[in-house]
Design a protein that fits this description.
By secondary structure, this protein is α+β, with helices and mostly antiparallel strands. Helix content is about 40%, strand content about 15%.
C-alpha cells in the first residue's frame, strides 16, 4: 500500500521529502526525465524494485502531482510522464548526481539504465562548437535514441531520426564503458558487444566529447577564483 508517513516538519525540505523521499521515488523521476515510460519499461530500468513497490511509488507520485498518465498510445498500455512540477526535480537530481560521483560503487550485480547513461552523456559532453553538426542513431537495450552534436551542444531525444551519420547498437553498460574509454570501441565492435553502421569516426567524435571535452566558457583560467 502507498505510504502515508510524514516527517511532520514544516520546513520546505521536509515537506519535499514527504513527497519524493521514499525509496525508489527519485529514481522513478530520473527514468522519466528523457521520455515517458510504461510500467513494464520502468521495471526493466529498475530491476531491483518489486512490482508492488513500484506500483505504490507511481501511485504516490501521481497523487502528489509529480507524474501523470501519458496520453493514450495507438498500441499498448498508457505510460507515465513528468508533470511541470515533477520536471522541476531535474535540477535536484543533477545536483545529487554531482554529489554522488565520489560515493562508492554498489556491490554487483548493480543496475545501470540507459537513461542514467544518457543523462551523463548530456551533462558531460562538450563538443567542439566549430565542428559540423552530427547526428547519431543510438540503440541502447532495445530502445532507440537520437543524439545530435551541434554548436557545442548535445541534444538527446527519444525515437528515430530521419537522417543519421552513424548508427550504434549496444547495451547501456557497454556504452558507459566507451564513454570512459573510447579506445575500446574497435575491440567492442570486434567481439560483437557493439554494432556500428556508418561513419565509425563519428562515434569516436561523440565519445571524445566526454573524455576530451572542448573547454567550457564557464571554466575559469588558472589562478582565477
Amino acid at each position: 500500500m502507498p505510504t502515508s508517513r510524514s516527517y511532520r516538519d514544516s520546513c520546505a525540505i521536509a515537506r519535499a521529502l514527504d513527497v519524493v523521499g521514499e525509496r525508489w521515488a527519485l529514481l522513478v523521476v530520473r527514468e522519466l526525465l528523457l521520455v515517458p515510460q510504461r510500467f513494464s519499461e520502468l521495471r526493466r530500468a529498475l530491476p531491483h524494485v518489486s512490482s508492488n513497490l513500484l506500483a505504490d511509488r507511481l501511485r504516490e507520485l501521481e497523487q502528489n502531482g509529480v507524474i501523470r498518465r501519458s496520453p493514450e498510445p495507438a498500441e499498448g498500455p498508457r505510460g507515465y510522464e513528468l508533470t511541470e512540477r515533477g520536471r522541476k526535480l531535474e535540477t535536484v537530481l543533477m545536483a545529487l548526481s554531482d554529489w554522488g560521483m565520489d560515493a562508492p560503487q554498489p556491490p554487483p550485480p548493480a543496475a545501470l539504465s540507459a537513461t542514467s547513461v544518457l543523462i551523463f552523456l548530456r551533462r558531460a559532453a562538450r563538443p567542439d562548437p566549430a565542428a559540423p553538426p552530427m547526428s547519431c542513431r543510438l540503440e541502447l537495450d532495445g530502445r532507440v535514441w537520437t543524439v545530435r552534436l551541434a554548436s557545442g551542444q548535445v541534444e538527446v531525444s527519444p525515437g528515430e531520426t530521419a537522417t543519421a551519420d552513424v548508427s550504434l547498437r549496444t547495451d547501456a553498460r557497454t556504452f558507459s564503458a566507451l564513454l570512459t574509454d573510447p579506445g575500446a570501441l574497435a575491440s567492442a565492435c570486434e567481439d560483437g558487444g557493439v554494432a556500428v553502421v556508418g561513419d565509425l569516426s563519428a562515434i569516436g567524435r561523440l565519445l571524445r566529447a566526454v573524455t576530451d571535452p572542448w573547454p567550457s566558457e564557464e571554466v575559469q583560467p588558472a589562478g582565477r577564483a
